[in-house]
Amino acid sequence: MATEKLSRSAVAERALRLGDEEGLEAVTIRRLAQALGVTPMALYWHFKNKDELMLGIVDHVLDGVRADRADTDPWDIQLRAMVDSLVRVMRAHPILADLLHSVEKDEATSFSRATDDALTLLTRAGFEVREAFWVASYLLHGAIGLVSGQPDCPTMVPAQDVAEWRRQKRLKMERLPADQFPMLVAFAGTYNEEPDPERYFAFGVDLLMAGVAAVARSIRA
Questions:
Q1: What is the distance between the alpha carbons of residues 96 and 24, in angstroms, rounded to a whole number?
Q2: Which pLDDT tens digit goes with each residue over 122-131?
């Protein structure tokens, strides 16, 4: 990629893809410059150091996480769409969950905008602004936990080894003393079934949103 064609967005997008392909530790100014076919100095026009680069990736990838502000859409529908969007982008970009824990995310414009959108919706639901911020933080960390804790084969396991990983997981749980851990032994049988990640993520977001909606109803009661 020629230097004159580089933009901040293009650099952040390539850094994001590099992280997804090789892991967060691979994302350095020198490694990114090599991937883009430029000198490291060309990237310093956009990001002064690695910390700024990491923040730039967050700002770039969260740009699409926003609320539809149409008055006809209830607050909970708009908020659910934001959470769904956040989960979707974290599933697509495995490094994002770690990045959100490691950078000063409130310095990213897109993160601040998404937070402000969420606070607008939550205050509309009846929460005071401090409570709204607590709820927004709960939803953010709930979404991170949902993606990070997906109860299936770890993403680093090669595709050809997934079936064996699941078999070994099932056998290990089935060996537990059934009189002490009957439900875990019963759960082991689910590893014989094909995983359903879409159901898992929809169920998880349902749980997050159900808690928020229940508290909002109690406030209005």
A1: 9
A2: 999 999 999 9
Question: Would you state the CATH architecture of domain 62-151+196-220?
Answer: Orthogonal Bundle (1.10)
- Residue among 112, 110, 116, 126 at smallest CA distance from 76: 126
3 state SS for 129-141:
HHHHHHHHHHHHH
Task: State which amino acid sits at residue 212.
Answer: V
> If 0-12 CB within 10 Å is exposed, 13-18 middle and 19+ buried, where does residue 125 land?
buried
Instruction: Give CA–CA dist 142/123, Å, rounded.
Output: 20
Which ranges in the chain belong to alpha helices (H)? 8-22, 29-36, 40-43, 50-61, 75-92, 96-102, 109-125, 129-148, 162-174, 182-188, 197-220
For 46, the 3-state DSSP assignment is coil
Angstrom distance (rounded) from CA 98 to CA 29: 18
Q: So what's the architecture of 3-48 in CATH?
A: Orthogonal Bundle (1.10)
Residue 43 corresponds to which amino acid? Answer: L
- pLDDT 10s digits, 84-115: 999 999 998 888 888 888 888 889 999 999 99
Q: What is the DSSP letter of 106?
A: G
